[in-house]
Amino acid sequence: MAWTPLLLALLSHCTGSLSQPVLTQPPSLSASPGATARLTCTLSSDLSVGGKNIYWYQQKPGSPPRYLLRFYSDSNKHQGSGVPSRFSGSKDASANAGLLLISGLQPEDEADYYCATYHGSGSSFSYPQCLRGRGSETKTPGPRGSLAEVVFTQPRSVSGSPGQKAVISCTRSSGSIGDNYVYWYQQRPGSAPTLMIYNYDQRPSGVPGRFSGSVDRSSNTAHLTITGLQPEDEADYHCLSGYDSY
């Protein structure tokens, strides 16, 4: 599969401005298949990367963010379910930055990459860094094994009128919904995700009280409830799980 045709979709997808000033990434990075990509996530001067977990997510157009990994140190890190080992985290203390390293680049790695960190009772997402392919080398994938991955299923859409209540569900396919914390994010077109609920039912500062989270262990499902719907609540809502608590 050639990388070049993918460029147009990404260029139209990666527009907008930085959503929060706490984290910054270069707007794009180009690399060739087989090479190693080094994506950077620089923290603002009031935060020290040495004391922070740095989370990395991958997002392709039309798909929700996928958790890749958490990195604090070489002895304190977490790899997402089914994420290849060629994705790894690191830090550059001199630049106060977190790093995502992707070795042996493949065409399917072309995507938007978000870094995130948590501070106090809130979170900050960078606007995505776009990893773009360079050249038109075609690679034939070799044999691949199957990876068991926990799947979370959400309904495609939920409708509601202003003032009403909406409940969005997220069902875990295997294992227990209690095995890992569930996080809910709101994402509007052209914007980075915003953390709405963490640790199942905790609300970051600044999130209205009409947003709440809950868990139904009997159905292995997490719920995001929005009461008193408002027009600005129209957005994509993603549930994410599968990584250590921060």
UniProtKB/TrEMBL annotation:
Mind telling me what this protein is named?
Ig-like domain-containing protein
* InterPro entries (alphabetical): Ig-like_dom, Ig-like_dom_sf, Ig-like_fold, Ig_sub, Ig_V-set, IgV_Light_Chain
| Stored Pfam families | V-set (PF07686)
- Where does the Ig-like domain start and stop, copy by copy? 21-126, 143-246
The residues forming the signal peptide are 1-19
Top-level taxon:
Eukaryota
Return the Gene3D superfamilies for the record: Immunoglobulins (2.60.40.10)
* PROSITE patterns linked: IG_LIKE (PS50835)
Give the species: Cnephaeus nilssonii
Keywords noted in UniProt: Disulfide bond, Immunoglobulin domain, Signal
